[in-house]
Structures are given as structure tokens and as C-alpha cells.
């Protein structure tokens, strides 16, 4: 209950304070390339329930290809999208998902259904909690695109190496997390973003 109260208060406050920035980013995205400012994608939430995750659009509207992006070399990403992804500002609209109750500020990053189908028994507990904007595994995977770029088969590498490693770390954190540890994760995330 305390975590949900924190999520509602934090997301609402952030949406209000950051509204000028959100508006400015939306204008930049729309002017830089054809298409709307936002991108919606089905992700899997708590108890396996699908929901529509919101992001600022960082790819061209006609983009197709694998679900993983290979660092800054991915031709599908717009110029503004490169900056948004590097600074993680493309994730800010998910504050709305937090306010709605689809997500939490801190929790396992939500995956697309295709990858959730690959979860083994040890990974399934990640679905027992609300997914989040950030968690320790996400901080450690900040440069995931570079790892994928160095692989001959990026999508296979994600499925077989990165995904199991990341989800097991998410499960381990979710089992011991509390508001104090969540606060530390938020601080670490902000520091990592500022270093960019």
C-alpha cells in the first residue's frame, strides 16, 4: 500500500513539474520526423496482464525489424531518438503508466509478450509484481545496445544471454526490495542519467 501511495504521489508530481519538458520533447519529436510524438507497445505487466506502454517515439514511423535495437547504429532510430534513448528521456511518458497503476517507479522492466514466453520457472516471479521504470538490472544494462552491437546475432544474444541474466536479477531484487532500497535505486538511476 505504501509503495502504491509513493508511486501515485511521485508520478503525479513529476508529470506536473516536468510538463514543460514533456511538451517540448513532444514538439521536437513531431517536427523532426513524420508521425506522432508517442509510441505505444504492448508489454506484460503484473500477473501476466498485458498493458499499453507509452514512450516518446524514437524511430521512424515505417520502421520494422527485430524487437531489440542495436545501439546507436540502428538506422531505424531518428536523430532526436538517439538523444532521447541515450538520456532515457524517451521513457518519461511511462510516468502516466505509473499513475494509472500499470507500472511502479521501481520494479522489473516490462517485456514484450514474445520474450515473456521464453521465461523459465525461475524467471516467472518477475511477473508477481508491478513492472517499473527502473531497477538495479536496468541500471546495470544501461549500455545494453553496445553489447548487442558487438554480437553477430543481436536478437539471439538478447534472448539467450541478456534476458535470463536481467530477469533473474530483477526477481532477486523484487524479493528483498522496500521503500528505502527503492529510493537508492531511484538515486542511482538519476546519477547514471546525469553522467550521460
Note down, in words, how this protein is organized.
- With 196 residues, the protein is mostly helical.
- The chain contains 9 helices and 4 strands, in the order ααββααβαβαααα.
- The chain has helices spanning 2-17, 19-32, 79-87, 94-100, 113-116, 136-140, 144-149, 154-176, 179-195, and strands at 38-44, 50-56, 104-106, 132-134.
- Strand 1 and strand 2 (50-56) form a beta hairpin.
- Helix 1 (2-17) runs antiparallel to helix 4 (94-100).
- The N and C termini lie far apart (34 Å).
- The model has no long low-confidence stretch (mean pLDDT 90).
Please supply descriptive tags for the structure shown above.
196 residues, mainly alpha, two-stranded parallel ribbon, single chain, 9 helices, 52% helix, globular
The coarse overall form would be globular
Q: How many structural domains in the coordinates?
A: 1
Strand arrangement within the widest β-sheet reads 1-2
- Rg measurement, Å: 16 Å
Give the N-to-C terminal Cα separation. 34 Å
Number of DSSP E strands: 4
Strand content: 5-15%
Query: Which stretches are poorly predicted, pLDDT < 50 over at least 5 residues?
Result: none
User: Roughly what percent helix?
Assistant: 40-55%
The secondary-structure class comes to mainly alpha
Q: Give the SSE string.
A: HHEEHHEHEHHHH
Average predicted confidence as pLDDT: 90
Amino acid at each position: 500500500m505504501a509503495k502504491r501511495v509513493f508511486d501515485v504521489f511521485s508520478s503525479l508530481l513529476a508529470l506536473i513539474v516536468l510538463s514543460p519538458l514533456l511538451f517540448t520533447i513532444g514538439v521536437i519529436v513531431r517536427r523532426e520526423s513524420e508521425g506522432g510524438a508517442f509510441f505505444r507497445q504492448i508489454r506484460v505487466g503484473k500477473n501476466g496482464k498485458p498493458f499499453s506502454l507509452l514512450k516518446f517515439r524514437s524511430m521512424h514511423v515505417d520502421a520494422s525489424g527485430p524487437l531489440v535495437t542495436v545501439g546507436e547504429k540502428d538506422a531505424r532510430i531518428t536523430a532526436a531518438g538517439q538523444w532521447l534513448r541515450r538520456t532515457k528521456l524517451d521513457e518519461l511518458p511511462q510516468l502516466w503508466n505509473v499513475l494509472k497503476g500499470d507500472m511502479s517507479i521501481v520494479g522489473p522492466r516490462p517485456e514484450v509478450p514474445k520474450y515473456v514466453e521464453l521465461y523459465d520457472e525461475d524467471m516467472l516471479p518477475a511477473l508477481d509484481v508491478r513492472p517499473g521504470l527502473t531497477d538495479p538490472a536496468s541500471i546495470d544494462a544501461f549500455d545494453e545496445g553496445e553489447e548487442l552491437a558487438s554480437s553477430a546475432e543481436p536478437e539471439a544474444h538478447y534472448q539467450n544471454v541478456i534476458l535470463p541474466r536481467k530477469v533473474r536479477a530483477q526477481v532477486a531484487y523484487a524479493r528483498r526490495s522496500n521503500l528505502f532500497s527503492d529510493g537508492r535505486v531511484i538515486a542511482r538511476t538519476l546519477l547514471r542519467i546525469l553522467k550521460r
